[in-house]
Each structure stands twice: as C-alpha cells, then as structure tokens.
Amino acid sequence: MENIAVIGAGTMGNGIAHVFAQKGFKVQLIDAQAPALEKAMATIEKNLDRQISKQTITTEDKASTLSNIQLSNSIEQGVAHADLVIEAATENAEIKKKIFASLDQYAKPNCILATNTSSISIGELAAATKRPTLVIGMHFMNPVPIMKLVEIINGEATAASITDSIVALTKKIDKIPCVVKDAPGFIANRILMPMINEAIHAFSEGISDAATIDQIMKLGMAHPMGPLQLADYIGLDVCKNIMTIMEEGFNNSKYAPAALLVKMVEQGKLGVKTGEGFYKY
Ligand SMILES: NC(=O)c1ccc[n+]([C@@H]2O[C@H](COP(=O)([O-])OP(=O)(O)OC[C@H]3O[C@@H](n4cnc5c(N)ncnc54)[C@H](O)[C@@H]3O)[C@@H](O)[C@H]2O)c1
C-alpha cells in the first residue's frame, strides 16, 4: 500500500493524514468544505512544528511530510489511485453511507475501504458497497499523532486477509492494532462511555462535585484525566450520541444517556468546544 486517501479533514482526518504522510505514504486529503482543508493543513504544520521543537523530527521531515499530502474536494478524483481509503467524515450514518457508495463507485476494485467511525456499524457501511469483504473499521484515537491505539473492527463480511493487511499497515505507522468484532461501541467506547455516563449520574445526584469525582478516578485508577473532564474534551453531544447508539443497538436501557447529559446537550453546554461543560473554558 502506497497511496492513502482520507475522507474528512476535521479533527481526526488531519491527524490520520499527518501520520501516514510522515511515514512516507502519499496521502490525498479530501473534504467537502474548502476551509476545512485549509484549516487541516495549518493544523498539520503546527503539529509538525511542535514535533521539531521537541526534536522528534527534523525540518527536512516536516518538508517531506507536507510534500506527501495533496488536498482535494472531489472524492471521484481524490480516491482514483488509492490502495486504501480511510473515511473520517462527520459521525452520521446517512452521510457515511453516501460516502461509501461513492467510494465503491470511484475507488479501484481492490481498494480497501476503512472507516474511523466511533460507533456506526461496519456492516451497515459495508452494505452500502458491493465489496463488503474489503470494508473494515480503523478507529484511531484523538490526538492521532500521539495516541498509539488503533481499534481494528472486523465487519461480519470482512475478509481475514484484509484484517491481516490492516494490522500490518497499522504497525508500519508505529501504532498498535487491537482487533475486535463489530458490535455497538466496539470495545473502547462500550467501556469508556458508560463510565462517563455513571460519573454524570453521580454528579447529578450530588454525591460529589466535578473536580472531586475526577480526582478520585485520576488518583484511584491512575486515569490521566477524570471522566467529566474527558467528557468535556470529547464533546457532550458526542458522548450522548454514542450512548444512544449503544442503547438502541443492544436494546438495553442500561446504556440510556443520563438525564443531565441530555439536558446539557439541549442547553448547548457541549464542553470545551462551546466554552462550557462540567467546567468552564
Ligand atoms: N473527535 C474524536 O475524538 C474522534 C475520535 C475517534 C473517532 N472519531 C470519529 O472520526 C470521524 C470524524 O470525526 P471528527 O471529530 O474528525 O469530525 P469533524 O467534524 O472534526 O470533521 C469531519 C469533517 O468531515 C467533513 N465532511 C462531512 N461530510 C463530508 C463528505 N460528504 N465528504 C467529504 N468530507 C465531508 C466535514 O467538512 C468535516 O471537515 C467520526 O466518525 C468520529 O466519530 C472521532
């Protein structure tokens, strides 16, 4: 695999493009919105500069990384030569199904189609294509250049040889692959989100204040960040959506988003991105 196309140049897409380009892959970074592409390149440059100041890369590495990235606002042109497409567009099943249908139309017949979705079923996205054996989940963590884990999700139809290729590729970019089956929330969010939700229940019952709840989990469980602060960073809307997808997917009310979480989302208190969540920013 030499040519990688990344669909969506937001938070995750720019990080995924950065990591592959730095490892010498040719990357097409594709977004429907031109400003998103400009912002992504500025972010990648800023993150490369940070790596230079930490002396983990040289100025030559920065130049070669940037020269490996091409920008495009057309899926048709951007994926034409890709060996692998990684879709990192907005977390919305309808948007992603449309993207997968057009990837199937325009990508080479043997091109692998991966998705960075946090919660949408791989099988559902594979069903939008005529190549379900070549569809797989590649769930990177934020911030991509720093976090080592890639959760690899096998759809029911994913061919074993495709999983093997993606596992090998993940190691090649210095990440650690962990392979799981396709189920609501996969593993990372299935365990993380109920913990965050439970912290919100405890907070709303007045058992303790946000800072103390977070401190207990940091000191007691060696978590680098407490669950309420982490929820603010992830975005409370994202947390609520993932809980709802698990509640519906498992048909089990134990995954119902906490009433306070729903209320805060309705009030537009989404965490860091809106300046207020469990903390003020
Ligand atoms: N943000 C995280 O912490 C995180 C972590 C792991 C996985 N994810 C997943 O990664 C994916 C992307 O998340 P994000 O946080 O980067 O989102 P984001 O909103 O920052 O970026 C999404 C980008 O997709 C673009 N886009 C939307 N529709 C498109 C289309 N049809 N064609 C091309 N581009 C399109 C948007 O213009 C936007 O720039 C989601 O599936 C999300 O669940 C996010």
Write up this protein.
The longest helix is centred in the first third of the chain and has 20 residues, at 34-53. The radius of gyration is 19 Å and the shape is globular. The protein starts with a strand and ends in a 15-residue tail after the last helix. It has an 8-stranded mixed sheet with strand order 3-2-1-4-5-6-7-8, with helices on both faces. The chain has 12 helices and 8 strands. It folds into 2 domains: 3-181, 3-Layer(aba) Sandwich (Rossmann fold), CATH 3.40.50; 189-271, N-(1-d-carboxylethyl)-l-norvaline Dehydrogenase, domain 2. β7 (149-154), α7 and β8 (176-181) form a beta-alpha-beta unit. α1 crosses α2 (34-53) and α11 (236-250) packs across α12 (259-266). Helices cover 49% and strands 14% of the residues. The model has no long low-confidence stretch (mean pLDDT 97). The protein is α/β, with parallel strands linked by helices and 281 residues long. The structure holds nicotinamide-adenine-dinucleotide (NAD). Nicotinamide-adenine-dinucleotide binds at residues 7-13, 30-33, 36, 88-91, 95, 99, 116-118, 139, 142, 234.
Number of strands: 8
Number of helices: 12
How is the main sheet built? Answer: 8 strands, mixed
CATH class of the largest domain: Alpha Beta
| CATH homologous group name of the largest domain | NAD(P)-binding Rossmann-like Domain
Sequence of strands across the biggest β-sheet: 3-2-1-4-5-6-7-8
| Contiguous uncertain segments of 5+ residues | none
CATH architecture of the largest domain: 3-Layer(aba) Sandwich
The whole-number mean of residue pLDDT values reads 97
Counting helices, strands and paired strands, the structural category is alpha/beta
Radius of gyration, whole Å? 19 Å
User: How much helix is in the residues?
Assistant: 40-55%
State the distance separating the first and last CA atoms. Answer: 42 Å
